[in-house]
């Protein structure tokens, strides 16, 4: 794990701790990479509640209460599904704020309108939420690393 990601995770930890917030994650394409970065930081038990790795559509529905009809209508890689994942993580945890990632890390999986590198993000605190859709360049590892960085940076913006 890069020092940049660890520095960012430490910044997130300080910001959450200052605000007295607990974080949970709902990850698909990152496979728990955000939670791993966060738990690399000593003392993260003070601001990290749990992480869900919901890689399959069924797990998104079963663990995070994402409506199957939403996935069928818009696809797994959509801002709406990212928002539902974050909301579902909050509802199924003790956290105050959640972040989610869902995307196509590659090398395959592209569909019309959603090339490899497409990632949707969600951040929610129960009262408000924010989503984004980005397309990253690079191989699978590069897409996943860029996704972790953007998820953490987005969380900092969301809570500040």
3D structure, described in words:
This protein is an alpha/beta fold. The chain has one domain (3-159): Maf protein, CATH 3.90.950. The chain contains six helices and five strands; from the N terminus they run H-E-H-E-H-H-H-E-E-E-H. The protein has helices at residues 3-19, 33-39, 57-64, 68-74, 79-91, 140-159, and strands at residues 23-27, 48-53, 97-103, 118-124, 129-135. A five-stranded mixed β-sheet has the order 2-1-3-4-5, sandwiched between helices. Helix 1 packs parallel to helix 6. The longest helix has 20 residues, at 140-159. The protein is globular and about 45 Å long. 42% of the residues are buried.
Instruction: Please state how the strands of the largest beta sheet are arranged side by side.
Output: 2-1-3-4-5
Q: What order do the helices and strands follow?
A: HEHEHHHEEEH
Shape label: globular
Quote the average pLDDT: 97
What would you give as the CATH superfamily?
CinA-like
Alpha-carbon distance between the two ends: 25 Å
Task: List unreliable stretches of 5+ residues.
Answer: none
**CATH-level-2 architecture:** Alpha-Beta Complex
- Please bin the fraction of helical residues: 40-55%
CATH domain topology = Maf protein
Count every helix, treating DSSP H or I runs of 4 or more residues as helices.
6
What's the domain count?
1
Q: Please state the structural category.
A: alpha/beta
Which range does the strand content fall in? 15-25%
CATH class equals: Alpha Beta
Q: Mind telling me the C-alpha Rg? A: 14 Å
Largest sheet: 5 strands, mixed
Domain CinA C-terminal: 7-158
InterPro entries: CinA-like_C, CinA_C
Protein name: CinA family protein
């Amino acid at each position: 794990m890069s020092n940049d990601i660890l520095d960012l995770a430490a910044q997130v930890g300080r910001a959450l701790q200052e605000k007295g917030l607990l974080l949970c994650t709902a990850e698909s394409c990152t496979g728990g990479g955000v939670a791993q970065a966060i738990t690399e930081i000593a003392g993260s038990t003070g601001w990290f509640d749990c992480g869900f790795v919901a890689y399959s559509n069924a797990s998104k529905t079963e663990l995070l209460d994402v409506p199957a009809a939403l996935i069928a209508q818009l696809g797994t890689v959509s801002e709406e599904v990212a928002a539902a994942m974050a909301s579902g993580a909050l509802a199924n945890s003790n956290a105050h704020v959640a972040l989610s990632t869902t995307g196509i890390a590659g090398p395959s999986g592209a569909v019309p309108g959603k090339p490899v590198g497409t990632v949707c993000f969600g951040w929610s605190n129960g009262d408000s939420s924010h989503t984004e859709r980005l397309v990253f360049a690079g191989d699978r590892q590069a897409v996943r690393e860029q996704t972790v960085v953007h998820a953490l940076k987005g969380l900092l913006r969301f809570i500040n």
